[in-house]
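Hello K.,

You asked for the raw outputs rather than the summary table, so here they are, unedited. I folded two proteins back to back in the same session to keep the settings identical. This is the first:
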Amino acid sequence: MAVRPILVVGNPVLRQKARKVSQFDRSIQKLVEDMIETMRAAPGVGLAAPQVGVPLRLAVIEVDEEVTVIANPEIVKRTGEYEPDEGCLSVPGFWGHVTRAEKVTVKAKDRTGKDFRLNAEGLLAQALQHEIDHLDGMLYIDHPGVVDELKRTEPVRRREAVQEEAAGNGEPRVRQGRRPRRTPPPPDAVPADEPELSPEAIG
């Protein structure tokens, strides 16, 4: 296993619509292992293949110490709506509020190519939506209103780059993850302007 560099906003690979995984060979298994290692080293809750420069419809997610590998995923059902805190390893130093479905059903293939369905809610559902966005060439900052209200988590100078990037774009097993905070926490819970989840927490 190896930790791979994570691409950041501005890299064109992040804006490509990823190709379907057609063969689940040794190279895909190596990629999956590297992605898990990279996600954990970041650290993050998830990581999509385009974030490590590979434009394939493949992502890994780890919630409650359980790793989920999804290949060629498709969201087939969405239920409810809320606005959790969200950040991204490819948009370091910022976080915002994104409208997400509270529950989703996803059909996908596992790392061996076997079909499965996954019903998810809470953090797992949020991470699935976030990673599938990556596979469609979309970042969380592309969702309506997000880029105008980004909050910093560390002193970085990426706001202009993020805004320019966003301006150029338009738009069953049952498992649960911890639900991200819907409303700002009390002042003594976390530092000012700091979400319960770090900006790198999703992927």
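The second followed immediately with the same parameters:
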Amino acid sequence: MKQFQNLITPLLVIGLFLSSFNFGPREQQQISFQEFKNKLLEPGLVDRIVVSNKSVAKVYVRNSPRDPASEDVVQGPINGTPARGSRGQYKYYFNIGSVESFEEKLEEAQEAMGIDTHDFVPVTYVSEMVWYQELLRFAPTLLLLGSLLYMGRRMQGGLGVGGGGGKGARGIFNIGKAHVTKVDKNAKNKVYFKDVAGCDEAKQEIMEFVHFLKNPKKYEELGAKIPKGALLVGPPGTGKTLLAKATAGESGVPFLSIAGSDFMEMFVGVGPSRVRNLFQEARQCAPSIVFIDEIDAIGRARGRGGFSGSNDERESTLNQLLVEMDGFGTTSGVVVLAGTNRPDILDKALLRPGRFDRQITIDKPDIKGRDQIFQIYLKKIKLDHEPSYFSQRLAALTPGFAGADIANVCNEAALIAARNESGQVTMDHFESAIDRIIGGLEKKNKVISKNERRTVAYHESGHAVAGWFLEYAEPLLKVTIVPRGTAALGFAQYVPNENLLMTKEQLFDMTCMTLGGRAAEQVILGKISTGAQNDLEKVTKMTYAQVAVYGFSDKVGLLSFPQREDSFEMTKPYSSKTAAIIDTEVREWVAKAYEKTVQLIEEHKEQVAQIAELLLEKEVLHQNDLLEVLGERPFKSSEITNYDRFKQGFEEEDKKSVKIPLINGAEEEDGSTPLEPQVVPS
């Protein structure tokens, strides 16, 4: 069919070109009636005339003229040679307007020549079918049908949802069909659970759905019902879609994937039709799994963001989805998985048991999870050490990174190594990649004056010294004055411990460390700059949270007024008097923290200057450089910190940690059961 489509256009052009020509017999010569009369009829060369289709008069000539003296009359104007040949040879033709007019002219001409009526040239009328004439008669109709067919195939193939050149199944004539990506057991390039790391609990939850579909009798014998679906919830980049792909690879049952936005179309009724088509296809190949990515595109709470009384296509699509998942005519054998990073805006009817029975939360991985994720991606990269050497350290360097961020770090490191024409990827390449992602593109050619560069050096030195001599401050890993991004003239990189709980003292020390740059400018340089803008924003946000959210202020009391970033409320949930108290408390707390920071910088003024001058010389200082100037930190943590993991790996921690219970219920090597974990003595 595709070859036929390619031939339609040239055929149409050729047809239009040929239709402009008036075809006639090629072996015969066309003459006028006057030539026929003077050159053929008068010399007596005409044997007979055959009128075809009442429009063409075919002249058959004799072997010899009636008057031999006039034999050469036919030469010249007609074809240049005498008309000779077999008896009654068809040589000439001419067109006639009407039969009556032709007969009248022919009779008058013969009477004028004195020919007896018995010797008149015989005229015969025949009806003939000429293929090219018949084709030209139907040419407009054929061209119109061909054009409609061509346009229809173009619309079916290219004007659908997929845009120009899309597949026929996604065209305008199949617009009610769901655009499903189907994965079966014979598919190639499948993803398995071994390719997913950092979310062991979520993998175990998903595996239960796979077991339900593979061994339903095991659960039905106990009276259990297969859950209808599960909602994968988590921030962007945490691996919700990747986990669904792994489910498709491990399940061994048909897996149908579709995006939430694929249900919506410009035509009314397309969304519900695609939902019905999706579940109809899923039931035909049951047991099966349906995965709807970004379900918030159609699953938003009804009645929000629309005008009352309007026909909302999205709400109709959602209603059809609710009916298909747990309606009157639903059948078992189809499990629905969905992914979203906005569960708060989903409709409550969609989240109730019977539709999405479970919500599986996939958070950003901790340091152990990041270590596992790094090991997966590092296997694909040519390294100068074992993957475990990098994964343990990189996991400590990337707090708050999701799986997609970690994949980006590995890819950026490989790109940097290739750019530097290195044969292998080293730790320096990974650190450069992390700096590139955190701080932006390095701008070595950015013009900075000496005074500005000196100000930046003392600012970053103040951060480093303040964090070094504060008990609860995060340990410093690296400080640099190399400009990056659009506004950052330098930054300090720390290794946070990712604590789940923070005390008032910890937050106070972190506030002091953030104000260290501003304090160093004031104490040593004697003037302040705008470089502390971002620091002041962080301090303001942190202190307001302590006073108005965490209940740390005695004046405000045990009250919490959390601020929602997506809230459009114009009024605050507290009075103006309470707002004044909060503002006063925040101002006093920040002033107290700044006073302590200034005092700390005064005590270590010489060390701040040494760090700043070293920064001006090297531009980048690592932890070893700080140890030479500042010495060991005066505070030691009783627990293993992320910075210790960065330096030593996980070997010591694993020896001192508690063994994790086995999931499958098997006994440990020493005979203890998973319900009674054994503490390994140090």
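The first strand starts at residue 29 and ends at 30.

Happy to rerun anything if the numbers look odd on your end.

Regards,
P.
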